[in-house]
Amino acid sequence: MDWRGDVPFSADPFNEVDGLILSQFCYVILDGVVPESFNESVSFAEAYRKYDPETVNIKQRILTFEQDNLLFRRLAESRRFRGTALCGYVSDTEHTEDMQFSALTYRLDDGSSFAAFRGTDGTVVGWKEDFNLSYMQQTAGQERAIAYINEAFSDGDYPVRLGGHSKGGNSAVYSSLFCDECVRRRITNIYSYDGPGFRDEILESEVYQHMLPRIRCYIPEASIVGMLLGSGTDPRIVKTSVNGIKQHYAYYWELRRNRFMPADRLKKSGDVINKAISGMLSDFSDTEREIFTDSLFEILKAPDKETLKELTKLSSYPAIIKAISKLRPEQQAVMKEAFKKIAQNGTGALFKPQ
């Protein structure tokens, strides 16, 4: 935004960095700021005047909260996004369905529209839905994503782009596969920024192969989330300014003007973790994956905390330890086997010759 915020789309068409900006902005809590209807809209400037970060619940303030607020101001002030209309804001969390879903539609002044899906927001429910992707044919969030773009783009013939960061990238790709044909044929690009992939039956389907040329996958050098399951394509690896899991956060991705800085290969640390987890998933049946996921989150829910940030506090540990001891025998057996496989696959990847 500092480099290119004054350059209109007429001079520099929509690019991969624009997609990440709009995908990241989807994390901002916009209740009462952006209308839920697709027939009403506000500009970035109007939305920023209505937005008050002090009213955002402390539990909804994710790690990038302050940076997202600064991004909001930059967007409101920029010439590039001045003519963008915001509409269709939805944000729901359903504990009974293990669903955390949020989306936002942008009507750009180049005549196109972009629908962004929010990634995992730090809630326990949101993270469980990520794990559900490994064994469920369709999650509740994926189903909502399909319904969302069908409603958003049912009329008109303007081009459509979809995107999202983290789980939002998975939602963007999945909804493009199973939306109405009248919507699908207008989708020009789908952007997945470090988003998890799909089960083999999706990757091998005719519709996925048909949409594959339009899918753009980007991952950081030590990607973990974006390497879960498969994508059917070689993702573009982006240089970052930090190490470890913080690379998942978009503000650490390096760019020059309107393109990301490419990296030649994944870093060893990310490759080890990815092979450890992926190896465990590939060795497990769907039933074992489901038992592992339910057991893990049964443990994490024991302290009665809603966010992973709260779970890291020492006060949560006694309840977690007690929950582990109360798991049923079959749950304990699967958990023990899972961590054994993770250790074996991780060690194998660590000492594998480069």
Unreliable stretches covering 5 or more consecutive residues: none
CATH fold-level label of the largest domain: Rossmann fold
Q: Rounded to an integer, what's the Rg over CA atoms? A: 20 Å
The CATH architecture of the largest domain is 3-Layer(aba) Sandwich
How far from one another are the termini?
38 Å
Relative strand content: 5-15%
SS elements, strand count: 10
Structural class: alpha/beta
How many individual helices? 14
The CATH C-level name of the largest domain is Alpha Beta
How would you sum up the global shape? Answer: globular
- Helix percent reads 40-55%
Major beta sheet, strand line-up = 1-2-3-4-5-6-7-8
| Element order: H for helix, E for strand | HEHHEEEHHEHHEHHEEEEHHHHH
Query: Major sheet: size, sense and barrel closure?
Result: 8 strands, mixed
- Our count of domains comes out at 2
Average pLDDT figure: 82
